[in-house]
What we know:
Elements: E1 13-17, E2 20-21, E3 25-39, E4 48-63, H1 64-73, E5 83-90, E6 99-108, E7 123-129, E8 132-136
Antiparallel strand pairs: 1-2, 1-5, 3-4, 4-7, 5-6, 6-7, 6-8
Amino acid sequence: MGLDTSQFSWKDITAAIGGKILDGITEVSYSKKATKELLYGRGNKPHKVLTGNFEFEGKITIWQSELIAMEKSAPDGEILNLEFDITIAYIPKDSTDQVIKTLKGVQITDVTEAMAQGDTHMKVELPIIFTDIKIHQ
């Protein structure tokens, strides 16, 4: 079996929140990390690596109009109270290779809106935390 060297570009990405495709998304990033600790005992070298809790975080950058739509669907209009899943599909047009991942239990931690002279539109960066990354086969 050969090594799959497929690469995806931004044009291959579709992101959806609650089943709604986001046309106004300009950036997405996400990460998972685990707390790791060395277990020491006799001697001066570790005996084992211990794994603790996992953490998931990232950010999405969207147009202001997407933010307004999310605020309208949020409980009491408060986007920081909104919980949703984000599905990210990497599907190139000229290939059968695809990767679909779902960020589960996403919540936004901070909203900052800003514009500067000369801007033609507003992009809003939304830091997120979530509970898991599901990879669909």
